[in-house]
Amino acid sequence: METLIKVYYVILGIILSCNSPPGCLAQESICRTGWVYFDSSCYFFYTAHHVTWKHATMLCQTRNTYLVAIETAAENNFIHTHAKRLGGGYWLGGSDEFVEGQWEWASIGKPFEYTNWYPGAPDNQLHHQDCLMTKGIFHNGWWDDVDCNQVGKFICEENLRRSCYWMTMLTGIGLCNKRNGITQLNSINYIEGFVLSNLLSPK
C-alpha cells in the first residue's frame, strides 16, 4: 500500500489536510504565479524596484517570505543562472551587521556554511559594507559585501518546508489540489493534536 504524506493547513481555526503521494510536495506547480521553483523553495526575482537591503528584507517579509539564503553550491548556480538571464546584481539575505566579520543569513538566523566570495571579498571597504549582494551577470555567481544603503534588485525565497501561514478555505483547497492530493477536513488524533498545538501556540 502506498504511503501517504499528510500536510496540514490551519485555515480560520479549521484543520485542512492534504493526503498526497510521496514526492508530490516538491513540485513547481505549488509556487505562486511568477515564482520559480528549486529544491523545495520558491523564488521571486524582483527587478522592477531598486531598494536598500533593509527595505528588500521588509518587502520579502510582507509576503511571508525572506530575503534569499543560499546554502549550497547548487542553489547558488540556480540563482546565478536566473540572475544572469534577468541581468544585474541582487541583494541576498546575508549580513555581518551585528558582529563584524561574522557573516550569517540574517533572514533565517544561520551562520554561513557554503560561501562563494569574489576574490578579495569580503573587504569591508570604507568600514560599512555589511550586506551581501551578487556581483552581477559576468562574475560567476560570486558574492560581494556592499554598503547596506546601496540600492539594488532582490530575491525573495519561500522555503516550502518551513512555510506556515494563515489562508482562506478556498486558498487551502486550491493548494491541496495543486499538490495532486485529496482535500478533506481532517480529524486529528491525540499525538497530531499535541504537535499542532505546540506549533500554533504563541511562544
TrEMBL record:
Keyword Membrane belongs to the record: no
Pfam families, alphabetized: Lectin_C
Domain C-type lectin as annotated: residue spans: 38-157
Keywords: Disulfide bond, Signal
Record's signal peptide: 1-26
Family matches, as SUPFAM superfamilies: C-type lectin-like
InterPro entries linked to this entry: C-type_lectin-like (IPR001304), C-type_lectin-like/link_sf (IPR016186), C-type_lectin/snaclec_domain (IPR050111), C-type_lectin_CS (IPR018378), CTDL_fold (IPR016187)
Alphabetized SMART domains for the sequence: CLECT (SM00034)
Protein's UniProt name: C-type lectin domain-containing protein
Native species: Mytilus galloprovincialis
Lineage of the species this protein comes from: Eukaryota, Metazoa, Spiralia, Lophotrochozoa, Mollusca
